Amino acid sequence: MTEHAATPRRGDHPAAHAPGPQTTETMTGAQSLIRSLEAVGADTVFGIPGGAILPAYDPLMDSTKVRHILVRHEQGAGHAATGYAQATGRVGVCMATSGPGATNLVTPIADAYMDSVPIVAITGQVASKAIGTDAFQEADICGITMPITKHNYLVTDPAEIPRVIAEAFHIAATGRPGPVLVDIAKDALQAQTVFRWPVEAALPGYRPVTKPHAKQIREAAKLLVNAKRPVLYVGGGVLKANAGAELRILAELTGAPVVTTLMAIGVFPDSHPQHLGMPGMHGSVPAVTALQKTDLLFTLGARFDDRVTGKLDSFAPSAKVVHADIDPAEIGKNRPADVPIVGDAREVLADLIVAVQAEFDAGHRGDYTEWWTRLNEWKKTYPLGYEPAPEGQLSPQQVIERIGQLVGPDAIYAAGVGQHQMWASQFIQFEKPATWLNSGGAGTMGYAVPAAMGAKAGKPDVPVWAIDGDGCFQMTNQELTTCTLNNLPIKVAVINNGSLGMVRQWQTLFYNQRYSNTVLHSGPGHDGVEPPAQGTRIPDFVLLSEAMGAVGLRCERPEDLDDVIKQAMEINDRPVVIDFIVHQDAMVWPMVAAGTSNDEIQFARGARPDFGDDLD
């Protein structure tokens, strides 16, 4: 399998109804399904067979174009499809049987929905005459997933399979991307049908707006050049539109500062002098504060979620708002927009560049000198940092930062959810789009390993590292077996502090250090304050990893850190897991406590920034 030559922009997909000779052939519905997947350009499917979907697995065995990767849990299949989609820009595909197989996909489908990731989930269903009878392994997966899919289908007529597959891929990839579920009755897979391709799409009500309104673009450009303290608030929509180049042109043309949300990391280089970092609950002080002090929130492909805004009614209190998004439902949902713009981020940015240049040509140019003086003071005074670990112990931030430095910005990094996720977003320097994969909206523990697996399947020539926590790792580590058997040599860095770290941090700060059920290495009757003695690790991640065919390494001392990372980098014939034993009292800073104003940001425990200016 070869690496894709280029990452397509959002909406690129093989034409379901491209001109050409009509293909008609008699075959089973199952054969029609596989032929349809080939026709839309799917090259990788992650899944597990079972009774209702089994008819599809027989012709899948004969396909020379579609690779099937047998996962160990359906949740792994869904997250792998997401990781594949995020890394490649193509639609990810997962497949499962009816009942529990399908319901095990619910979490990754919800995850993809929250983060606007294009995946198609194909599930088997009981025979059409048995639907609604509580048949063995029956579940109404269409009903279950209706709130968390962009669209879904129940197919009982085999003749509908090609059209439905073509539509599913089109819907998943265009407009605001998202998951589409295709549930196919077993008898529809078994019945004879006439396969027809190309197909005629039947989506009269689906017309995503991609081209922005010219008047709104002109109004936005005027606000930008007249603002004194603008901020380009950049969300994941810019990354999904493959609009990083256009964003950089606009930023450098205007000189405005840029903040990138958790889902947009990498779309604008971390090293760029105009980049202030990530906003939000654990964002940088300059990024969070710039949004609070700005007079113009220039919002591109972001959704004003609570982790960014903090207490909503205190967010950016003096700012006018330009809000550009491909999904009109997002505009004004949380914060009214003075200038709403509906359109694809790449189209919006391209038009804005022209409009801003026209303002410049007319003699209208923003002067942000005083604004940058303040911003640079904040960047200098409140940089990201961390306290060193106790003597002889590893700091988790140091581990993650060093991985980023040694592995470099060309690799793909997938993170689980929790402290390690935030530290990875803070201390790995991201310079390129589609190199940072994480579960942002849903916050799904267990995401990292299968997502890294999917990314490696889509980008086999790129190093892929999963930065995981010991809690997250224990949810989906069985996919290491899948990686071993399918030549997907990912690297997994387990940041092992013996606890559910982010929950423990909240217990430290808000629950009087009552560590109820967050210690992972001890059972009832143990307070779990001290880590277990050598030889009593439960589970022992090194032995566990080796049992699944991976190389297991452990690092406990700072002086061994570089050598262990380099050793892992040199192993490329199987997965590698490094168990980094880190001290358990490290916390993620800066922090805005949930439900409070971003003005309450702390850059360390009990320490709030003092900006000392008239904007406070």
* Estimated structural class: alpha/beta
Q: Count the helices. How many?
A: 23
Q: Count of DSSP E strands?
A: 20
What is the mean predicted local confidence, pLDDT? 93
Helix residue percentage: 25-40%
Overall radius of gyration: 25 Å
Name the strands of the widest sheet in spatial order. 3-2-4-5-7-6
Q: Please give the largest β-sheet.
A: 6 strands, parallel
Shape: globular
Q: Could you name the ranges where pLDDT drops below 50 across 5 or more consecutive residues?
A: 1-9
Strand content: 15-25%
Distance between the termini: 56 Å
How would you characterize the overall build of this protein?
There is one protein chain. The chain has 616 residues and is α/β, with parallel strands linked by helices. 35% of the residues lie in helices and 16% in strands. The strands form four sheets. It has a six-stranded parallel sheet, with helices on both faces. Strands 11-10-9-12-13-14 form a six-stranded parallel sheet, with helices on both faces. Helix 23 links the parallel strand 19 (551-555) and strand 20. Helix 1 (29-39) crosses helix 2 (54-60) and helix 9 (214-226) packs across helix 14 (345-361). The longest helix is centred in the middle third of the chain and has 17 residues, at 345-361. Mean pLDDT is 93; it is low at 1-9.
Quick structural summary:
The chain has 23 helices and 20 strands. The protein is α/β, with parallel strands linked by helices and 616 residues long. The chain starts with 22 loop residues before the first strand and ends in a 35-residue tail after the last strand.
